[in-house]
Amino acid sequence: MLPTQQGSIRLFRLLGIQVYLHWSWFFVAFYTVSTRGDQYSSPVWNIAEYLSLFLLVLMHEYGHSLACRSTGGQADQIVLWPLGGVAYVAPPQRPGAQLWSIAAGPMVNALLVPVFYLAVRIAAGRGLDDTNPDLFECLLTIQLINLALLIFNLLPIYPLDGGQILRSVLWYFVGPANSLIVATVIGFLGGAAFFAYGAYQGSTWNMVLAGFLLFNCWKSFQFARQLRGHLRNLPPPVPPAAFGS
Question: How far is CA 70 from the centre of its chain?
């Protein structure tokens, strides 16, 4: 249920990584921008805000990809789509390599937190909130978006980064199969809670996102059972890895 390069537009290639944009992105972007409200005096700022969101997502995915390469793994493709981005990576099958490849994504957002904080403080100090309120509001919103991406991705809900970090840490103690089983079980509980929260809010978007997480959590749980069987009898299969936001 993850997006692939099929049905996607080839955007550019940077640092040996090909970046694609899924066709569905345009429909969700149009809907989101057109229903954003009257926060700005011009819809141009709504567009700038939405594009900034995906620039942050892209930087996050590059964090995954470049960290994976530093461990000797393979990473050459990123796909952006309405639910964020997916970095298709294949780190070495050992917990340390997996942990670094996963943690590097949210680490990018964490490093940007003080950068945006200082930018907002400097802008406010120079009176930008009075001289150019649209620009100041956009900068403030991007700061909050980056922080929200960081917090959301660190939730221990598999397959979010937090859930995959949990799995990598557990791998040191209980092995690759059992660690994935534990992480996906916790992911089921977290995903269900997130779905209930979305239903309580009446947020269709949060419910769709929770459904996506639960579906991929279930697929990973099935793979974990298969992996445990292979570890008992045969060399373990190598799953196609993908880290997203």
Answer: 20
